[in-house]
Amino acid sequence: MIKNTWIIAHRDFKAYFTSPIAYIVIAGFLGIMGWMFFFNLTHFNLQNMQYQQFNMGKGVSITEGIIRPLYGNMNVIFLFMVPFITMRLFAEEKKLHTIELLMTSPIHLSEIILGKFFSAFLLVLVMLGLTVIYPIVLFATGNPEWGPIITSYIGTLLLAGCYLSIGVLFSSMTENQIVAGALTFAAGLFFWLISWATQTAGPVWGEILTYLSLISHYNNFGQGLLNTSDIFYYLSFIGVGLFLTHRVLDSYRWR
């Protein structure tokens, strides 16, 4: 199973770089993140200069002033970027009618789905790997905490995995890449903003909506905390997305 999954993941991962998709997504991601890092760093230095100038006590920490807002914004950027990464995974196969070859091959359907998912996950991993320059700069110029940086990366990977599972699902439901991308963004935004309704939903529904919110489970990661319930939620979300993808493609096989 691992061998077949890796073959599909490797094939699709290479396919990203044979088209402009990977280069455009990576360039856009790094451009936006670079600007945000520069802005956060400048704002952080300005804040601490004001604290020292007016003797207002201890200034803002690097964790609160740079790390948390930077990686929090990174999750917003992935909300926009992931649809471009996942929209072609199955939609393109359907449009080119190569999906029939996949379905009739001796490879299990679960291996196909996992291979597609991990190909997109690898691209996200590459994008995150390129942002390691930001912690390097922080350690070269200051003394940040390791914990929040590491947990922020873990939380971002898990959250991006949830976006990817949504994208794989909608890509399996249509042959139109634009439709798949739009639905992925809309669903990701819905699970991002669902907690906004907690104030008017009552105590019971408020807790349910908060638990279903993707961003509410990221807060602990941003503070340097690893909570098993948050990890379980993200992994369950990814599992449900891939399971529904399996059901969609399994029904397609029998049409």
Model description:
With 255 residues, the chain is mainly α. It has one domain (2-253). Helix content is 80%, strand content 0%. The protein contains twelve helices and no strands. The chain has helices at residues 2-17, 20-53, 62-86, 91-95, 99-104, 109-129, 133-141, 146-171, 177-193, 198-212, 219-222, 228-253.
Helix content: over 70%
% residues in beta strands: under 5%
Low-confidence stretches: none
Written as H for each helix and E for each strand, in order along the chain, the element string is: HHHHHHHHHHHH
Terminal-residue CA separation: 26 Å
Question: What secondary-structure arrangement, pairings included, does this model have?
Answer:
Elements: H1 2-17, H2 20-53, H3 62-86, H4 91-95, H5 99-104, H6 109-129, H7 133-141, H8 146-171, H9 177-193, H10 198-212, H11 219-222, H12 228-253
Helix pairs in contact: 1-6, 2-3, 3-8, 3-9, 6-8, 6-12, 8-9, 8-12
